[in-house]
């Protein structure tokens, strides 16, 4: 069982920055990857960034060069540093953890979401 608690969302002006945090608890050792997804009103949820235990990262094209995903293993926390924010980045951002629940069985756990609004 994995629980995720998100923080760091808010209102920023275009060009500004935010840093989202997601703290994991429970069966931490079972996690093999963590990431961030977002969902804007009227839009489908999309993957924003993902990082594996080995440190490999992936980003959706629209955020490459602006967003950075990172981990602090000592704190069991994943971060999303968001720079040069644009109005189209406005969405609810969800943290997720991909983890094993038993041999050959894997699931994804999700945080409650945090609102990011980019507006002048």
Which characteristics define this entry?
60% strand
Explain this structure.
- By secondary structure, the protein is an all-beta fold.
- The protein is built from no helices and eleven strands.
- Strands 2, 4, 5, 6, 9, 10 and 11 form a seven-stranded mixed β-sheet that branches. It has a four-stranded antiparallel β-sheet with strand order 1-3-8-7, with no helix packed on it.
- A hairpin with a 4-residue loop joins strand 5 and strand 6.
N-to-C series of helices and strands: EEEEEEEEEEE
**Low-confidence parts:** none
Share of β-strand residues? over 45%
Largest sheet: 7 strands, mixed
Mean pLDDT: 96
Q: Tally of extended strands?
A: 11
- Rounded to the nearest angstrom, the radius of gyration is 14 Å
Supply the helix-strand structural class. mainly beta
Kindly report how far apart the N and C termini lie: 40 Å
How many helices does DSSP assign? 0
Shape: elongated
Helical content band: under 10%
């Amino acid at each position: 069982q994995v629980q995720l608690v998100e923080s760091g969302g808010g209102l920023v002006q275009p060009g500004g920055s935010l840093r989202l945090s997601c703290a994991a608890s429970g069966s931490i050792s079972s996690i093999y990857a963590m990431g961030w997804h977002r969902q804007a009103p009227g839009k489908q949820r999309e993957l924003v960034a993902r990082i594996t235990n080995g440190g490999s990262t992936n980003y959706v094209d629209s955020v490459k060069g602006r967003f950075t995903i990172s981990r602090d293993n000592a704190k069991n926390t994943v971060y999303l540093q968001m720079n040069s924010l644009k109005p189209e980045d406005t969405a609810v951002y969800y943290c997720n953890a991909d983890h094993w629940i038993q041999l050959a069985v894997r699931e994804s756990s999700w945080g409650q979401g945090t609102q990011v609004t980019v507006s002048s």
